[in-house]
Amino acid sequence: MKRKAKIGVVCMVRKSFDYLTAGKLYEDIIRNLSERQDVEFVFVEQPLIEPEDAQKASEQLLSENIDGVVIISGTFHLGHLALIINKNLQKPILLWGLPELPYNGGKIRLNSVCGVNLNASNLYKGGNDSFYVSVSQDIDEDWINAIKIKTALSSDHIGILGYRARGFFNVGVDELGAYAETGMLLDHYELGEVINAHTSNDEIERIEEELKDIFDVHAITPEQLKKVAELSAKFKKFMQENNVDALAIRCWPEFAAEFGIAPCASMSYLQSKGYLLGCEGDVEGLISMIAHQAIGAQTPFMADFSQVNLEEDVALLWHCGVAPCNLTDGVCNCSLNSYHADGKGVTADFVMKSGEISFCRIDTARGKTRLLLGKGEAHQMEKELRGTYMKARFDIPLKELLNKVVYNGFAHHISVVYGDYTKPFEILAHINKWEIVR
Hints:
Layout (H helix, E strand, L loop, with lengths): L4 E8 L6 H16 L4 E5 L7 H13 L4 E6 L6 H10 L3 E5 L14 H14 L6 E4 L5 H15 L2 E4 L13 H8 L3 E4 L2 H4 L5 H14 L7 H20 L4 E4 L4 H6 L4 H8 L4 E3 L4 H12 L6 E9 L4 E6 L15 E3 L9 E5 L3 E11 L2 E12 L8 E7 L3 H10 L6 E5 L3 H11 L2 E3 L1
């Protein structure tokens, strides 16, 4: 589900150029952008010419609490205008240049790109180098998606249930450091708030029947199946009642000991419904999934670089059985099994579908936030082991990728999605001044 972002739009012109035609082009832009449902645009409808116009526009946009601002160079214009917008709003900026129009009487009509150059130089020399530049007839979709990620990370209600998994020091999170970087506020809940939650028998029975339709359940007991359904209902109720958009879960060892099963299968089922659930209390893995979902990636999932075959240049992206069950390859037997935690694991077991993939991890180390980004292809394979997994080949040699992960100290979870969603993260890193490791 894509997040909505609120984006301000202004157009800057100078009367020494064809500002009337630029105004008509701006009217077309307003009309086209107004039809979109995924972004709330706030337009300053009259083009800005003088510094006083930029001051009034700033006041309008400031009152609207926008997430970012698009500055269109309708023509070349005064350098004051963008600096005033930047000073007053302090929001991410897209500098948008329009393609030049056919010459009319030997005179350049817009000189829009030169206006973008002017603004970029002024902003950079004035201390802001987080702007992004685009020259096109259409607004830059990747910049919009980067703003959607920023909006989601700062506005989603994120919870952690319990704590990180035992010994997983590398997925711990500095809460105030994360707040400083993203605006994220993390709320803590105890495991008992889910384990002891009351749910209706009707809802449990409904989910149980649905699980039977999705999975081969012959390898688990009827009691275990009921517990998977019950825990699914408990998670749903907890997240709805607490308005939690995404939840990192300390999924072992307490759940198996205190509730009777580990939550893997329940998490697989719920993630196929669009719920965002992170394994092992990994908050930064979870916010990487939030970022993917914010820009329209369907059912992101957490995975490990579990096995590497350097000779064949492929890796197994595996986890213990928690990936969204809608991502099965449709060929293998999609089943539930209790292979770990002394028979109390109850995981989903299936091979994931083939196709283009991309992955990311937002990760903090030594006081710096970094982005691990990559792309690859999931290939068909036989179902040979428990859990949820895919065989993947990446766009760089596997040895090189593995070295980048381990020698930069990245945690062992990544958020994986089908499709290429890397460009918005590159722009996000530019805006936030995060290091990118590709």
